[in-house]
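Margin note: ligand = guanosine-5'-diphosphate.
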Amino acid sequence: MFENLSERLERSFKILKGEGKITEINVAETLKDVRRALLDADVNYKVAKNFTDTVKTKALGMNVLTAVKPGQLMVKIVHDELAKLMGGEATELHLSGKPSIILMSGLQGSGKTTFSGKLANMLKTKQHKNPMLVACDVYRPAAIEQLKVVGAQVGVPVYAEDENKNVNEIALHAIQEAKAKGHDVVIVDTAGRLAVDESMMREIASLKDAIHPDETLFVVDSMTGQDAVNTAKEFNDRLDFDGVVLTKLDGDTRGGAALSIRTVVTKPIKFIGTGEKMEAIDVFHPERMADRILGMGDVVSLVERAQEQFDEEEAKRLQKKIQKNKFDFDDFLKQIEQIKKMGNLKELASMIPGVGKAIKDVDIDDNAFNGIEAIIRSMTPQERTHPEVLNQSRKMRIAKGSGTSIQEVNRLVKQFDQTRKMMKMVTGNQAMSMMARMKD
Ligand code: GDP
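Resulting structure:
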C-alpha cells in the first residue's frame, strides 16, 4: 500500500540530512521534491500545492526549535499535514434509524457488492448487529447471484425480488421485511455503470429520496487515482453522500485518491478495502494512514487485529497445555489458522515499523503456511498429539501424503520442538501475565 509514495517522500527528506537548521532555501528544495512526489502519486494539483505551502509556513515558523533536527521536524510536519489532509479523526457511521439504512453507490466494478458483504460481516461480528443485504442491481442477473453468494459467505440474509425491476419498490419491501424480522441494519447494494451516466444517477437519486438512508456511501476503486476523485465529485454533486469507501488499497502503490478525495469533495473516507476476502475491511484512520505512508508502521491497527482474533477461552486452554508441556500439532495448526484470519501476511508485516520498506520487494505470499498445514493434516491424530512417535517411516509417509519432502517434514518437526521448548521456558505466571497484557 502506497509504497511508491513512501519511498519518494523518504528521498525528499534526505535533502535536509546533515543540514544544521531549516532555511528558506533548503525548505524550498525539499518541498519541491515533496510536491513532485505527490503529483507522481496522482494527487490533485491544487491539493499538492496547498499542502506544500502549508508545510512551508509551518516549517519556517517552527525554526526556533533548534533541538530538533530539520529532517525530523519536516517529517513531523508532513505527517501531521498528511493526516489532516485525509480528514484528521476517523468518522463513524450514523446508525440511529430503526432499522438503519445504508445505501451503496459507485461505478460498476468499484467493489460495492464485495464491500456490502464486508460491512455486513463487520457490523455483525464486531457491533453485534443483525444486518440484512438488499439486491438492487437488477440489470445483471449475475449481480443478484453474487450478492447472494457474499451473503451466504458471511451468514447474512439477502433480500431480492428476481422478477421486479423497480428498485425503489424492492428497497421499500426489503425495509418492511427487515422491520418484520427484526433486522436493525439494511444495506442496499445498487447497480453501477462503467462510467457516470444520467440514467444511473437518476435511478440512485430517486432511490435515495424513496428510502431516506441514514448513510449513503460512495464506493470507489483507489487504484484509479484522479479518476476516482473526479467520479467522487460527480456522485457527490448529485447524491450529497455521507462518506467514501476506498477499495483495492492493497494494490494501490501511489495513494493519490486517498490523499485528494477528502479535500475535493469535503466528505470523509470512512472505510478501506484491502483485499478480496470478507475480512479485508478497515475503518479509515487518517493518522494511522499517515504513519504508514511515512514508513512509521501502524502498530495500533496491528494490535487491534490481533485482539479481534484473540479468544480468551482458547488462550486459557492453550496455557494449561503449555504448562503441562502438552502443546501439540493440533494446537500448532489452530495458531496458524488464527494468524491467517488476521489477513494478508505482507500487509500485516508492513504494519510493523521499519518492516514495510524492507519487505517491499519480498514476495510473501498468503500460501506460506500451506506446506506446514498439509504436513500436519497428513499426520494421524496420535502423531499430532504425541509427536515423539514420529520415526523415519512415519515421516516418509507424511511427506508423501502431504506432497512435500522428508526434509520439509524434518524441518517442521524440528521447529515444533524448538517452539515447545521455548514455550516451556515461559510457562506459569509469566505466560499468564503476557497474555493478560495482550488483552489490555
Ligand atoms: P461492484 O460491481 O461494484 O459490485 O464490484 P465487485 O464487488 O463485484 O468487485 C469487483 C472486483 O473487485 C471483484 O473481483 C472483487 O473481488 C474485487 N475487489 C473488491 N474489493 C477489493 C479490494 O479491497 N481489494 C482487491 N484486491 N480486490 C477487491
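Residues 431-440 have pLDDT under 50 and may be disordered.
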